[in-house]
Amino acid sequence: MDLGVLLPSLIPSSQSVYVLVFYFVYLAVAGEILPGKVIRGVVLSDGSQLRYRCNGLFALTLLVAILGISAKLGLVSPLVVADRGLELLSATFILCVLVTLVLYITGRSSSDKGSSLKPHVSGNLVHDWWFGIQLNPQFLSIDLKFFFVRAGMMGWLLINLSILAKSVQDGSMSQSMILYQIFCALYILDYFVHEEYMTSTWDIIAERLGFMLVFGDLLWIPFTFSIQGWWLLHNKVELTVPAIVANCFVFLIGYMVFRGANKQKHIFKKNPKTPIWGKPPVVVGGKLLASGYWGIARHCNYLGDLMLALSFSLPCGISSPVPYFYPIYLLILLIWRERRDEERCAEKYKEIWAEYLRLVPYRILPYVY
Ligand code: NDP
Q1: Please, what is the average pLDDT of the chain?
Q2: So where does this one cross the membrane (predicted)?
Q3: Which of 28, 156, 237, 358 minimizes the number of CB atoms within 10 Å of its CB?
C-alpha cells in the first residue's frame, strides 16, 4: 500500500470527529432515557450489586431507523463510515488513549473503598494504564464498561451496513457479501436480545477498565471484526451451492452451541434447580453446572463462538488469509482467556473445581483440547 496515500487518510477530519461525537452522545442519551429491563449485576466482593439498563436493542433499532430515514432524506450519506474508515479508526484510537488517561488519573485519585471504584495501583504506570485501576468506573452515572462494549458491538453493525451500502453503490455486491452481512447482523442482534447475559461475563465481572478493554471494545471489535466486509469490497469470490450450505451449517451449529451454553450457565446461576435438556442438572458442590453443554467441555461457549467466527470468514473463500484474521485472533484470545478463567475458578472454587475437572476433562473441544 502507498504510504503517501495511507498516512493522510489516517488523519481525522472534523467530519469523522462529528460522527464519533454524534454516536457517543446518542448512545449516552439513549442508554439513559430509553426503557429497558434493569438487571442486577453479580454480587461484588463487598456485597454490592450494580444495575444495568438493558435497552441496547431498542437503542440500536432506533439509531438504524434514524440513520436510514436521514439517508433517505439526503441528510447523511450511508457511505460516511465506509468512505472514512481509516480516519474514523485513528480518531477512535486517539479517543481510547485520551479516555484511558483520564481513567488512569481519576482512578488513582479515587479514595472510594467499594469494590467498583476502589483503586488497584501497582505503581507501574504502563501496567496500571493498560489493565486499568478501577473495576466499574462511571461517568455521569453511566457505567463506562457496559457503555463501551455496547458502542463497539453497535459500531460493528454500523460499519457493516455502510460497507453494504458501498457495495450496492459500486456494484460489487455478491452472495459472499450477503452471507457475511446476514451472519454478522444476526450475531449482533442476538447479542442485544440477550444483552443481560453480558452482565455476568468475565469482562464485566473481573477485568478492570484500562486501555486493553477500552481499545478492545471501541476499536478492535468494530474495525477488525469487519475486515471480511472491507475485503469483499475489493475481492470477488464465487461460492458453490454446497459451500453456501456448509457455511450456513457452521453458522447454525455455532450459534446453537454458543447461545445454548451461555443460556444454560445464565439460568443455572439464577436458579440452580432449572432442568438442563429436560433433566435435573448435575451440580458440583452446589455451585458448578456439570451437565448440558457444561458437561461436554468446560468452555463449550467458546467453541460455539469460534465456529461463528469461522462462519463469518468462510464467505470470503480460501484465497487469502486476510479475512481469517477474526477467527485466528479469537482462537488465540479464547485459549488465553480460558487459561486465565480456569486459574481464577481454581482459586475461587478450590476442591469443587478439582472435582469439576475430574468430571469434565476437556477445556473447549471434546477429545481434542
Ligand atoms: P464465561 O461466560 O464462560 O464465564 C466464565 C465464568 O463462568 C467463570 O469465571 C465462572 O464465574 C463461571 N463458570 C465457569 N464454569 C462454570 C460452570 N461449570 N458452572 C457455573 N459457572 C461456571 O466466559 P466469558 O465471560 O469469557 O465469555 C462469555 C461469552 O463471550 C463467551 O461465549 C465468549 O465466547 C464470548 N466472548 C467473545 C469475545 C469476542 O471477541 N468475540 C471475547 C470474549 C468473550 P463465577 O465465578 O461467576 O462462577
Answers
A1: 92
A2: 16-35, 56-76, 88-106, 147-165, 177-193, 213-233, 239-258, 278-296, 308-336
A3: 358
Candidate of 40, 223, 265, 289 to mutate for ligand 1, largest count of ligand atoms within 8 Å of Cβ: 265
Q: 330 CB under 6 A from ligand 1?
A: yes
Cβ of 179 below 6 Å from ligand 1 = no
pLDDT in tens, 204-257: 888 899 999 999 999 999 999 999 999 999 998 989 999 999 999 999 999 999
In whole angstroms, give the CA distance from residue 117 to residue 108: 10
Distance CA 57, CA 31 (A): 10
What is the arithmetic mean of pLDDT over 346-354?
92
Per DSSP bridges, beta strands 288-289 and 51-54 are: unpaired
User: 202 CA distance to ligand 1 centroid (A)?
Assistant: 6
User: What is the DSSP secondary-structure string of 162-219?
Assistant: HHHHHHHHTT---HHHHHHHHHHHHHHHHHHHTGGGGGGSHHHHT---SHHHHHIIII
List, for residues 37-55, the tens digit of each pLDDT value: 998 888 888 888 889 999 9
Question: For the segment 164-176, what is each residue's pLDDT rounded down to a tens digit?
Answer: 999 999 988 999 9
Among candidate residues 93, 16, 17, 26, the one with its CA nearest the CA of residue 56: 26
pLDDT, one tens digit per residue, over 301-312 is: 999 999 999 999
Q: Is the CB of 255 under 6 A from ligand 1?
A: no
Identify the helix (H) or strand (E) that includes residue 246.
Answer: helix 241-270
Q: Is 181 in the pocket of ligand 1 (CB under 6 A)?
A: no
